[in-house]
């Protein structure tokens, strides 16, 4: 991207967005970081970046955020596997507002972080020819936003790169939060194959795609998809003091549907949804090397067997408790 280009990152205090912001700052890019919740901006205070208050609901704040911007990396959204009507306002409507603001500002590049959950279960590794068929509202919203953004970008002549991320893991994700607490519950038998990627590599892919002006739509993952049992066993190898508990898929689905009316009364996002149960149990391997070869880079962590030990090392400074209180 050269020093003359200026980059905007939405969702900069989110899981992937924060890592993107950190890497850009470390590279001396001085990105603009869009923040919806001011209290979370404390996460960004150490970064060499411009932090702006904004919201995907506010066209005015998006226009202000896009002033002087050449490139957008769009990660902001309600990133929970909820019903379509709950995620549409940010994933679809908010993305459209942002693209409108980027086009009005004269931006040249737009990288959109989509999801592997646009696919149904697969018997063969996902590649560029695999058709979309989402099983949850989150995936449906991602498919719709991709379609609209492609049309807008084509008409405006802006380069659009849509990158469908797999399960991205790191020290700040929800699962490793549970690992630090000493237990992980998961729905199903855990034998379905899933594609994964370390948070460092996810951010690096997005930044490199923006840097090179990559256009197109592609899924991406590390080089070795594994099932959830193997994933959790790899964590236990280095941190054997946490326990895993499998809940039958039918029971987990029944429970999430049972609490659905109560959950709908709250505006707070929830991980306990039918969509999360369905998504966890999909079979979603990804073809080795896809997108990496196009971008001309390789993952720093080619599999969970290199990535998970690093994540556990990163977890060490997250929380301190007195040894008397530490029961894990």
Structure description:
With 328 residues, this protein is of the alpha/beta class. Helices cover 40% and strands 16% of the residues. The protein has helices at 15-26, 59-66, 84-105, 137-156, 174-181, 199-211, 228-238, 249-258, 260-264, 274-280, 292-295, 304-315, and strands at residues 7-10, 32-35, 50-53, 71-74, 109-115, 159-165, 167-169, 183-187, 193-194, 196-198, 216-219, 226-227, 243-247. The strands form four sheets. A seven-stranded parallel beta sheet has the order 3-2-1-4-5-6-11, sandwiched between helices. It has a two-stranded parallel sheet with strand order 7-10. Strand 4, helix 3 (84-105) and strand 5 (109-115) form a beta-alpha-beta unit. Helix 2 (59-66) crosses helix 3, helix 3 runs parallel beside helix 4 (137-156) and helix 7 (228-238) packs across helix 12. The longest helix has 22 residues, at 84-105. It is globular, with a radius of gyration of 19 Å.
Query: What is the tally of helical segments?
Result: 12
What is the percent of helical residues?
40-55%
Overall 3D form: globular
The N- to C-terminal Cα distance equals 46 Å
* Neighbour order of strands in the largest sheet: 3-2-1-4-5-6-11
What is the H/E order? EHEEHEHEHEEHEEEHEEHEHHHHH
The total beta strand count reads 13
**Computed Rg:** 19 Å
Low-confidence stretches: 320-326
């Amino acid at each position: 991207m050269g020093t003359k280009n200026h980059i905007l990152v939405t969702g900069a205090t989110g899981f992937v967005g924060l890592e993107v912001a950190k890497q850009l700052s470390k590279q001396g890019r001085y990105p603009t970081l869009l923040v919806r919740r001011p209290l979370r901006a404390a996460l960004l205070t150490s970064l060499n970046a411009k932090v702006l208050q904004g919201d995907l609901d506010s066209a005015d704040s998006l226009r202000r955020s896009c002033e002087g911007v050449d490139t957008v990396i769009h990660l902001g959204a309600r990133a929970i596997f909820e019903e379509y009507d709950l995620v549409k306002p940010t994933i679809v409507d908010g993305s459209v507002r942002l693209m409108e603001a980027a086009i009005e500002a004269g931006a040249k590049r737009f990288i959109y972080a989509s999801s592997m959950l646009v696919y149904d279960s697969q018997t063969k590794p996902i590649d560029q020819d695999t058709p979309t068929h989402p099983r949850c509202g989150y995936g449906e919203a991602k498919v719709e936003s991709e379609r609209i953004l492609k049309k807008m970008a084509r008409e405006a002549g802006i380069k659009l790169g849509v990158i469908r991320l797999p399960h991205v893991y790191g020290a700040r994700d929800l699962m490793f939060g549970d690992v630090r607490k000493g237990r992980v519950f998961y729905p199903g038998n855990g034998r379905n194959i899933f594609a994964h990627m370390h948070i460092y590599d996810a951010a690096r892919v997005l930044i490199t795609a923006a840097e090179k002006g990559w256009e197109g739509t592609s899924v991406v993952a590390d080089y070795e998809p594994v099932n959830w049992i193997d994933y959790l066993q790899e964590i236990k190898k280095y941190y054997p003091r946490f326990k895993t508990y499998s809940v039958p898929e039918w029971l987990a689905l029944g429970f999430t549907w049972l609490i659905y009316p109560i959950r709908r009364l709250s505006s707070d996002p929830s991980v306990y949804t039918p969509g999360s149960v369905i998504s966890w149990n999909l079979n979603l391997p990804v073809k080795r090397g896809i997108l990496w070869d196009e971008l001309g880079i390789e993952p720093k962590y080619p599999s969970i067997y290199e990535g998970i030990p690093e994540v556990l090392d990163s977890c060490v400074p997250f929380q301190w408790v007195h040894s008397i209180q530490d029961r894990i």
